[in-house]
Specification:
Blueprint (H helix, E strand, L loop, with lengths): L1 H17 L14 H24 L4 E3 L2 E5 H4 L4 H6 L4 E11 L8 E7 L11 E5 L4 H7 L4 E7 L6 E4 L6
Parallel strand pairs: 2-3
Antiparallel strand pairs: 1-2, 3-4, 3-6, 4-5, 6-7
Length: about 170
């Protein structure tokens, strides 16, 4: 009986490793993330500029019923304003500075420099927290790549990567 159980268990493990979508760390592999981001980059840039323009005028764009503020305007807000807009979403445009190593318990931490500050020698590294499913895509994109993300205000601890052709 034990031999039969061990055989069944081992065959299931071998079968699971052969399934291309199986990924024990829940980091979906999206091989086309670079290509998709490159194809959509112009649209994303113009969308970010539009969101920034409307954020300056306080006529916010809506995404799934929530108002979207640009990261450029978000950095100018004081603490009271940030907490007033706690149900808003931040659209960020930044260059990846570093990506954290794999962590089973938490999401993926990313350090990035906002596009507006990219040429500045004293540019501040901003911190973003992404879901585990973006681990492969973020590492594949790598340091120095411009990316776009929607993040929850006020702490930017729940971010989703946009423009990578993610299958929902």
């Amino acid at each position: 009986m034990i031999k039969l159980w061990c055989y069944f268990f081992l065959s299931c493990m071998l079968y699971a490793n052969e399934i291309p979508q199986y990924n024990r760390y829940k980091t979906w592999k999206n091989a086309d993330s670079e290509v998709s981001l490159q194809q959509h980059e112009k649209k994303l840039e113009s969308f970010y500029k539009q969101v920034d323009r409307q954020s300056q005028q306080r006529k916010f764009v809506r995404f799934n019923g929530k108002r979207v503020v640009s990261h450029t305007e978000y950095t100018k807000m004081n603490l009271a304003e940030i907490h007033k807009y706690h149900v808003y979403i931040v659209l960020s445009e930044f260059y990846i500075q570093w990506v954290s190593p794999h962590n089973n318990l938490d999401g993926v931490s990313v350090g990035g420099i906002l596009t507006q500050d990219a040429g500045d020698k004293k540019a501040q590294v901003r911190y973003f927290k992404f879901a585990q499913r973006y681990y492969s895509a973020l590492h594949r994109l790598g340091k120095g790549r411009k990316v776009y993300a929607y993040c929850a205000i006020p702490y930017l601890t729940s971010c989703i990567l946009t423009g990578i052709g993610e299958k929902w």
